[in-house]
Amino acid sequence: MMVDARIVKSQQALVLAGLKLINKNKEISLSDVAKEAGVGRATLYRLYSSKEALIEAIALHCLNAFEVATKPIEQLATSTMHAFELLFELTMPLTDESQFLMSLDYFADDIPQVNDIIAKQDEELWDLIEEAKQAGQLEKSLPTSWVLNLIEGLYYAGWVQQQEYQASAKQAAALAFQSFSRAVTPL
């Protein structure tokens, strides 16, 4: 089945406009999103029947951006600690996507497809943490859930550094990894 390129272009424009505007104002109207995207309201409502549908599409876009960014880690990483370093380095530039995903609970906490992807990504990170513990690169006494939450907290800290203190994504990633490695390496 062939997909109309105009539909794809409109969907992409709406998702990117929604990401930008919703990050600035969670109460933004769909009309404002359509205007920012350069798409008519009729097209918007044909593609996304509700704000919730657009939010789901934006969330899926954000999660896919993380998936694409982290894809090379398996091939590039020379150790589990290097994998964590690459994780921060490759995903820290995704500040808009991070901000949106951090605020997703504001909109909806029960989007099955989004929740499934987040659970899968968390499971992959959990497995990496466990692998690093087994390799002796992470302190074994630290609960895996603690390390997982530490990583999420460092993403938030990196986002704040970029948004409020004009740090580059590279600087924020380096700070996050430095903080991470000092906090979790065996004593």
From TrEMBL:
Residues 29-48 bind DNA. It comes from the Bacteria. The keyword Transport does not apply. Coiled coil: none annotated. PROSITE patterns: HTH_TETR_2. PANTHER family: HTH-TYPE TRANSCRIPTIONAL REGULATOR BETI, HTH-TYPE TRANSCRIPTIONAL REGULATOR RUTR. This is TetR/AcrR family transcriptional regulator.
